[in-house]
Amino acid sequence: MAAPLHSSLERRYARLGLLLIAPTVLIFCAVIVYPLVSAIYLSLFRVFTPTLESSWVGLSNYRELLASGLFWKALWNTLVWTAGTLTLQIVLGIGMALVLHQNIWFRSLARSLILFPYFISTVVAVLVWKWVFNDLYGILNHLLMQSGIISMPIDYLGSMPNAMISVILVGAWKYFPFVVIAVLARLQTIPEPLYEAARIDGAGPIARFFDVTLPQLRDVLVVIVMLRAIWDFKEFDLIWLLTGGGPSSSTETLPIVVYRQAFALNQMGMAAAWAVSMMAILLVFMIVYIRRTREKGPA
């Protein structure tokens, strides 16, 4: 008698569990699965954006994409942008987090102000930086000329490699507070006895950073690098508003090409193929990155 009752209770709990997770599954399918399947499906057609008139082309979009020099150039620009801005974000973020972790005056105020770039609207930030970088009336050229460092204004956004360097610097300034928040939170949980033991062993500040702080930050840095790499790789608005992909497509990244294919050239199918290719590249990166970090992890 007890066995059938127990079995009936388990079935009830199983049905209740399915009922509780059903909304989450439905939202997941609506937000992730359906758009992903739709993008892959669209990439197999030649679609005219204004009318959505389509014709089956199979893998022709992918063959055309891989055979074009535009894809490889945009991929290279994307990798340069991602690697450059991510490196600066990590370096600046860790450095600023270490400073804010110290017992300094106005620490609470400084911790609040350091978040300002991350919370400010991208449009507002770009407008400010375009004024700073302007080659005719920008404050940066004015200060450099007044100090005698340069004799002629520099075109920061209209020539290479200035444009890519400027975009990378703005991206690092805009997003490094995210690294500060995450690293600072981890620094506050590192046991103080670890530093005391290192001091007793004669370790200086640099040795304590590499032998104590950095190993303790490893796990959080793994997550930060993965998240920021994904977000930087698909960054669109900041680069588009700063340079529009110019000059001469020298800062044109994969997301910008997707936008141009879909809404400038009205080739929604080709745009979907570009987007699916981006997803595949990110997927390969995540798999390789996670495996490498696990292999290097503590035994």
UniProtKB/TrEMBL annotation:
A Pfam family that this protein carries is BPD_transp_1
Keywords for this protein: Cell membrane, Membrane, Transmembrane, Transmembrane helix, Transport
- What SUPFAM superfamilies does the record tag this protein with? MetI-like (SSF161098)
Stretches that traverse the bilayer:
16-42, 79-100, 112-133, 164-185, 271-290
Identify the domain of life. Bacteria
Stated membrane topology is: Multi-pass membrane protein
Q: Where is the ABC transmembrane type-1 domain?
A: 75-289
Any one of the GO BP annotations:
transmembrane transport
Where in or outside the cell is it found? Cell membrane
Q: Name one GO cellular component term.
A: plasma membrane
**Family affiliation:** Belongs to the binding-protein-dependent transport system permease family.
Q: What is this protein called?
A: Sugar ABC transporter permease
Q: Give the source species.
A: Pseudotabrizicola algicola
Q: What is the lineage of its organism?
A: Bacteria, Pseudomonadati, Pseudomonadota, Alphaproteobacteria, Rhodobacterales
